[in-house]
């Protein structure tokens, strides 16, 4: 996943339960992934840095940037077969 221009790309992502998602910050400004349900947050990513979160349970995950709450994204986690 890219973070560029104060946006997550792609804004909506589908993964299978158990998968990791990695974000890499291309902006000069730091960003941080914060799950909207309050469960997990990443470290702050400076330019060029990455952060990874693992999603073990199926469901729709909404997240935002902890430093810029107007930056929003979502991940659809589907159950493993
Ligand atoms: Cu941000």
In which range does the helix fraction lie?
under 10%
The largest beta-sheet arranges its strands as: 2-1-4-6
State the CATH topology.
Immunoglobulin-like
Beta-strand content estimate: over 45%
Number of strands: 8
CATH architecture: Sandwich
Please tally the helical runs, counting DSSP H or I stretches of 4 or more residues: 0
What is the CATH homology-level superfamily?
Cupredoxins -  blue copper proteins
Overall domain count:
1
Largest sheet: 4 strands, mixed
Which kinds of small molecule does this entry bind, naming each only once?
copper (II) ion
Q: What characteristic shape results from the CA principal axes? A: globular
Going by helix content, strand content and strand pairing, the class is mainly beta
CATH class: Mainly Beta
Word description of this protein:
It is a single chain. By secondary structure, the chain is mainly β. It has a single domain (2-78), classed as Immunoglobulin-like (Sandwich), CATH 2.60.40. It has strands spanning 2-4, 7-9, 12-16, 19-25, 33-35, 50-55, 59-65, 72-78. A 4-stranded mixed sheet has the order 2-1-4-6, with no helix packed on it. Strands 3-8-7-5 form a 4-stranded mixed sheet, with no helix packed on it. The structure holds copper (II) ion (CU).
């Amino acid at each position: 996943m890219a973070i560029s221009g104060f946006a997550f790309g792609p804004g909506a992502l589908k993964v299978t339960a158990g998968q990791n998602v990695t974000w890499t910050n291309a902006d000069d400004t730091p960003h941080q992934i914060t799950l909207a349900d309050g469960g997990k947050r990443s470290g702050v990513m400076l330019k060029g840095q990455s952060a990874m979160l693992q999603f073990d349970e199926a469901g729709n995950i909404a997240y935002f940037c902890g430093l810029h709450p107007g930056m929003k994204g979502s991940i659809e986690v589907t159950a493993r077969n």
